[in-house]
Structures are given as structure tokens and as C-alpha cells.
Prior knowledge:
Elements: H1 3-12, E1 17-18, H2 19-29, H3 38-50, E2 54-62, E3 65-72, H4 74-99
Antiparallel strand pairs: 1-3, 2-3
Helix pairs in contact: 1-2
Amino acid sequence: MREPTFWILTALAARALHGYGIIRDVAAMSGGEVALQAGTLYAALDRLAAEGRVEIDREEQVDGRTRRYYRLTTDGAAALDAETERLRRNVAAAVSARRLGVHPGVQPA
Length: 109
């Protein structure tokens, strides 16, 4: 799973959000490390909707423009759970390697 996809699904795990809300949540959750651009976000949302991982929750009119809210689907939640578990295993492997001194000459953090 690509990193932007992981962060988008994570942002939608708690509640339905519109595009700018997703951008803000991703920036906050990643400590500013991930700054989604609108083009990247909406291309990813279109792809995720086509894959059945997100869907439109509702639309509302704000200042004459349509604001579309997205929510995670059951398939999206399953994909996020699987990716979270994969990342957890990777972190465990990295921590274990550091503890076992697999990297000689590198001081543990």
C-alpha cells in the first residue's frame, strides 16, 4: 500500500471527512511529514472508491460549492487493518534487529 493511501484510510477510520479535512488530518497525524496535495488526494479517492475501499458519505453545499464527504467501507477497513499489521511486523523486526546487535558499529537509540 502506498503511504498516501495508508494515511487517507487512517484519516477516514474515525469518521467521514471532506477533502480538506482529510488533508488536515493526515498532516496532523503524520506530524507534518505527509502533506497531501489536492490532486494527489482526489486521484487517490477516485481510485479507492473504484476499489470499494471508500465511498461517498454525503454532499453539502458550502458557498455555492459541493463539499463531498467520504467514509471508509468494510473493505477499506480490512485493507487498513492488514497494512497496519504489516507495518507492526516491520517495526517489530527492526526493533528486534537493533536489540540483537545485528548492526555492528551502530549505537542503539
